[in-house]
């Protein structure tokens, strides 16, 4: 029994020493150099996001979330474009945006705050409007265009791809 314990201890000791041999200060540097990106926040690990189905009288939508899964070292400004059949100002509004698009600030989370354990993220505050006219279904297409912070530019879409780069809101008519 003692021999087995010794063997286990010896194995652990060898593993620990080999770990420390492989560690280098470059590993820390490479963490900071991970390519950051900004993307729409899907359920779980999905790489696509289902269209948001809403009614035109739903008011402010609270599910259109943009995240930085890789974390950020300072506030990130995200620009997005707007398209689709819904008319800005008539069918919907977004604070701080115009018909062509807007910006979003994802604030750097303070790690000293225990509430801030989730990935850094922010909602795009889309508010749908009812118009009193039976005018059918309309869509808003929100596309992430660019993102940057004090450290430089970040990619948009998951890993800089087209995945999670666009979100669609389908507005059902209630008139
Ligand atoms: Ca309507």
Detail the topology: elements first, then pairings.
Blueprint: H1 2-22, H2 25-32, E1 37-40, E2 52-55, E3 65-68, E4 76-83, E5 92-94, E6 101-106, E7 120-123, E8 126-128, E9 138-149, E10 152-156, E11 166-172
Parallel strand pairs: 1-10, 2-11
Antiparallel strand pairs: 1-3, 3-7, 4-6, 4-9, 5-8, 9-10, 9-11
Calcium ion binds next to loops.
- Profile the largest sheet: 9 strands, mixed
CATH topology description: Immunoglobulin-like
* CATH C-level: Mainly Beta
- State the end-to-end CA separation: 80 Å
Order of helices and strands: HHEEEEEEEEEEE
Helix fraction, binned, reads: 10-25%
CATH superfamily: CalX-beta domain
CATH architecture: Sandwich
Rg measurement, Å: 23 Å
Average predicted local confidence, pLDDT: 83
> What is the beta-strand fraction?
25-35%
- Total number of strands: 11
Tally the helices: what do you get? Answer: 2
In total, the number of domains comes to 1
Overall SS class: alpha+beta
| Low-pLDDT regions | 11-20
